[in-house]
Write a structure and sequence with these properties.
Radius of gyration: 19 Å
Strand content: 25-35%
Strand order of the largest sheet: 1-2-3
Largest sheet: 3 strands, antiparallel
Shape: elongated
Number of strands: 3
Structural class: alpha+beta
Distance between the termini: 35 Å
Length: about 110
């Protein structure tokens, strides 16, 4: 199956997320109860609210943010394939997503 794969048609994407606020205490009060309710199924035994937030908030769109997107493509050259990587990263999610969108040619 993999021998039929054309590497030049493959794109690899990795997206990294983190909690949107530095810690649970700085999350807006109106969101804390919602977060605790939504994330209860992920809570580990003995985990504090702060640990729960740090460990799991990044996976929820409402409580996390994208800080890094890495794209990789294979380019065929005379001696074989070269793997090219593009990284888009930053603390502010919006510019990261806008640059990613621009790279894909979507507006």
């Amino acid at each position: 199956m993999l021998d039929q794969l054309h590497l030049e048609n493959l794109i690899c994407i990795d997206i990294e997320t983190v909690p949107a606020w530095p810690d649970f205490a700085t999350m807006p009060e109106e969101l804390k109860e919602l977060y605790l309710k939504k994330s209860i199924r992920l809570k580990q035994e003995g985990e504090t609210e702060e640990e729960q937030y740090f460990n799991h908030a990044g996976i929820y769109a409402e409580f996390g943010k994208v800080i890094c997107i890495v794209l990789g493509i294979f380019r065929k050259e005379k001696d074989g394939y070269v793997f090219r990587i593009k990284t888009i990263a930053g603390d502010d999610e919006r510019p990261v997503l806008v640059e990613f969108s621009d790279l894909l040619g979507k507006h």
